[in-house]
Amino acid sequence: MDDRARGEDAAARDLAARQAGFVDARARREFIQLALAAFLVSFMYSHAALLAVVFEREGFDLHDTGLLLSLYAAPVVLFTFLSGAVSARIGVLGSCRVAVALMLVGFFSLRYTADAFWPALASRLTQGAGQGLLLASFVTYGQSRLNARRFVYLIALFSSMFALAQAFAPPFGALMLNAFGAPAMFLAGAAPAALAFALTFGLRDIPRPAEGRGLDLRTALRRSRPASLGAVFVNGAMFSFTASFLAALLEARAVPIGCFFFASTTTLFASRFLAMGVFETFDRRLLVAGGFVAQGASFALVAAAGLSWLIVVAGVLFGAGYSVVYPVLSAAVSAGLDPAERAGPQAIFNTAFNVGIFFTPYPTALLIGWFGYGATAFSLAALAFLSAGALAAWALARPGARPA
User: Fold this and answer.
1) Among 184, 292, 364, 394, which residue has the fewest nearby CB atoms (within 10 Å)?
2) First vs last C-alpha separation in the chain
3) What phi, psi does 22 have (nearest 5°)?
4) Which of the 8 DSSP states describes residue 305?
């Protein structure tokens, strides 16, 4: 094939890629490659569901186990906030690599440190620093590979890779833990993350933001950004309740936990793969409002129902609502910005999300202690409905305004 024919073939592949939603043909491969890396590193991270078991077997009491699990939040939130500045210094792709490396070192080192509190805490804090850098840097890079044609749909698929591993890693980790012990579990869990680190190479980096724009608070907060930050905080708080307390609520009512979680996970992926292409044509404020209505209805049903099939319906509602909110808001935060300008706003956005996830369990626990699980679930449902009402009122009052 001569140079002219090769050039025409490359142009045809670039055109096909742009029509599919990517900036060029190479960007399609880079998007898929980093999405696979996201799945693999999340496969390792999802073993966190078993850490309480590991620490208990190592002889830690509940107080020390609680500290090892909860102090993880501090580096996650701090390094999420700093991820924009890190990307400005070493590049978004460099931030992706550092995130994976820190998570890998922190997790694998537990193979040797899990039997002593302070070394185990050092491992947890190292992994937490990587976790803080991970989401903002990966999503920023994934967005940079896309054009406006199918932006929301494709970034929804990309972000699904972080959740997909949760369906496979805990059962696999439990199998390794019970069959071969904790050292083998940490080794087997770290192997996919090592492959994820390798997959961050061979990709084109994106331009760094202008000097002094690392955190970029001004861009993150200007115009409609506070609405996105508030909404993603609420979304994080809703997810936090399901991750921290819903299992206990269902067990107290003798309802199988899988009724909710299998239904919600299945619906989340079905929604993002099958429906998000249609959803992205709607007003983003109404989309997010609809997501909050579904989540609120789910929590109200959980609070009032004790039958398994109704809990399945609640799981479907939560999965449908949760599948929409994060990718739509993430796309809104980046709307109108060049790829080099997105790292700072994504850092602030994901900080609000992580604050909702990691810092609401304590006040939620106080509410449960005072009023019980049902009343707490109703209060979170009310928060979701109020948030939905505010976004819907804004969309109806100002239909031409910039989305949330």
Assistant:
1) 184
2) 50
3) -105, 160
4) -
